[in-house]
Amino acid sequence: MKKRLFVLSALVLMFLINEKVYAETPANEQQTDIDHYEDVPSSPDQNSDFDSSSVNKDLEVLYERLYDEGYDLGEGDGYKGRAYDSFNEQISDQMPSEEFKWFKMGYSVGYEKGKRQKEEEEQSEQAADFELGEEAGYAQGVKDYKNAAIQKQLKNNPSQSEHWNKGYTAGYEKAVQLMDLSVVAKSDGYSQGLKEEEMTIPSQYSNEDLTSTAFEQGFKKGEKERIDKLKKKYKKEAYKQGHALRPLTEPDNLGPELQAFFQEQYEKGKQAKKKEIRQTGFDDGFTYTSYVTPKAYKSKEQKEWYKQGFESNKDANKLRKAAYEAGRHAKDLNLPKKYKDNKAAVAMSNNYYERGKAERDARIGKILIGGGFILSAGALMATFIYRRKRSIEDEG
Prior knowledge:
- The chain is built from 12 helices and no strands.
- By secondary structure, it is mainly α.
């Protein structure tokens, strides 16, 4: 659209100039200047139907076509980088000077366009080659650094372009520099992790993945050491709080991980206390035949734990009966294996075994006393009969 406006403006200006020249030129010379326009009348006086707008339109079409032809030809030469390669004298000889100016104008604009397009394509291709080479060099540089095999002098790869090799060298050198810097970054990250809760990567490390990753790794290592040290400190403190059933009281400025750890140890202490109280209730199930809450337990929670333990003892009555019967019948006391280390169960079983044994002994004693009376009466009777018999014999 801009080109058409430019062409139209130029045509109008040229037409006005030609009109002035035409008016000042003798009549016999006017025909020769424009006789190459077959459709244009020689003079307004010679043709009453002469239309200046029609002439302008024809000129516009003609000059635009000449401009486009020149533009296309110039664009091709510009892309090839050979000025006027397709431009020869025959073209200028075949055109009037005014037409040739338009053709040449189009050629010049097209040539610059083609030249610029070619340069942009070459630059884009070179940049792509450089980038590919840089990526390859960077990867190799990191690998060589880790393997302690850094190359001091890099050799060009003959199968790659000049810009690829330049990129490879740049990438390799960048990798070595960043690996050196990453060692420092990791050390700085470690120091920060030993002191700080939150990681803050300095600007000299944050712009590159290699250095930012190294800093983060160092920070995590330092952070772990710092947290492990604090965990040792807080483990006993939190456990004691929970075991004593005191309200949870966390130290100030604990990070999320330490806070969770402190609460976990507190809960462990509390659960250990719960287990102990339940075990006490269970053991008391051997000692007492009916439930009574000990006065030592004040809170509702403690009383509930004790009751749960007491009521969970389903074997106490069975063991009492078995121990009593064993004692009563003079059998060995056979306590189940799982209760042999339970002092309360052992004490209860021994107690009831002795009770059964005492009953047996009492029963035997009664039997012996009754038997002794019968024996004594018989002996007296026998003695009386014996003496009676001897007295008769003596008399006779």
